[in-house]
Amino acid sequence: MPEACLNVGVLAHTAEQLGELVRLVQTAGHRASASLDSTFLKVVTELPKADAWLVASDYPENARKLLEDLDLTAIPVVYNDDGPLSEEDNVLSSVELREKRAKKLAAKLALLTRGEVQDRIEGSRARAKYLWVLAASTGGPKAISDFLDEIPAELAGVAFLYVQHIDDGTMKTLKQVVDTHSAFNVQMLDVPRVIREKTIYLVPPSMQIDLLDNGVITPLPVPWKGDYSPSIDQVIAKVARVFADRGGAIIFTGMGDDGARSSQLLHYRGGEVWVQSAGSCAVDSMPVSVQAIMQAGEEGEPAQLARKLVARHRLYALSQ
């Protein structure tokens, strides 16, 4: 059974979908407090109260604005994105398949609600509108320190995900370094957290992270795949999926090509990709690998990139 029974609202655009999602919520051990056709709703204020919302992933275009507005509220949102059946799923009965999907839904709701509880403990900073990945390997702590020295405490709307190739035993020292050079709040990703502005989140090397559709970031009890821990490519790909043109990545000094492939994906999704200039790197392989497959939006020394980022977001603020 879940830690607490939630009132989960359901949004879909066919009676069949609504019925199936209601049954899914109930099988997961929660109450379906409202089931509504998303095509006839125009504004978030028309929605009844709910602890969380379960939304059919193939919602029609005329419901997009409503769901985008819902994503910006403090209410957790889960998209029913199970996708096509696997070979393993094809042999399950409809009841067994629903139970399997219900377990997955229950786990998602637990992560979301724990993130909201942790967020209420941490304070009242606004949700971040923009999320930048700071990616580094060899020589990274010095480069990131120079970058953060130029980021003012009052820069609103922005959060950073710092992905550094490092071992688990050095994370405490890394946090101390970042704390010393940053005016932002610095958080380890040891529990689910809502992504808040003026915050730097340190990605752990010992376990993967997941970035959920409503802006909750959570650790996963599984190791990183591939040659790098943490994997810059995997982190940037998650930011590209969720934040798209509100996401960004800066590839700093480092050995290897981690981050190059997903930087191209982020660029295609409308996000910004910047690189540290090769001449200012301890090892230039990572930024050079990005430049080999795409044209970075900006290139410069860490402090220069920081000043450009601040100027960019101050312009965004003035235009709103």
Give the strand content.
15-25%
Number of helices: 10
The CATH class of the largest domain turns out to be Alpha Beta
Q: Which whole number gives the mean pLDDT?
A: 83
Textual characterization of the structure:
The protein is 38% helix and 21% strand. The strands form three sheets. A seven-stranded parallel β-sheet has the order 7-9-6-5-12-13-14, with helices on both faces. Strands 2-1-3-4 form a four-stranded parallel β-sheet, covered by helices on one side. It has a three-stranded antiparallel β-sheet with strand order 8-11-10. The protein has two domains: 7-122, Rossmann fold; 130-319, Methylesterase CheB, C-terminal domain (Rossmann fold, 3-Layer(aba) Sandwich), CATH 3.40.50.180. Helix 5 runs parallel beside helix 6 and helix 7 packs parallel to helix 8 (260-268). With 320 residues, the protein is of the alpha/beta class.
In short:
The protein is an alpha/beta fold.
Question: What distinguishing features does this structure have?
Answer:
four-stranded parallel β-sheet; 320 residues; alpha/beta; Rossmann fold; 21% strand; 10 helices
List the helices and strands and how they pair.
Layout: E1 7-12, H1 15-27, E2 31-37, E3 52-56, H2 64-71, E4 77-80, H3 87-90, H4 94-122, E5 130-136, H5 140-148, E6 158-164, H6 171-181, E7 185-188, E8 193-194, E9 199-202, E10 209-211, E11 216-219, H7 232-243, E12 247-251, H8 260-268, E13 272-276, H9 285-293, E14 298-300, H10 302-319
Helix pairs in contact: 1-4, 5-6, 5-10, 7-8, 8-9
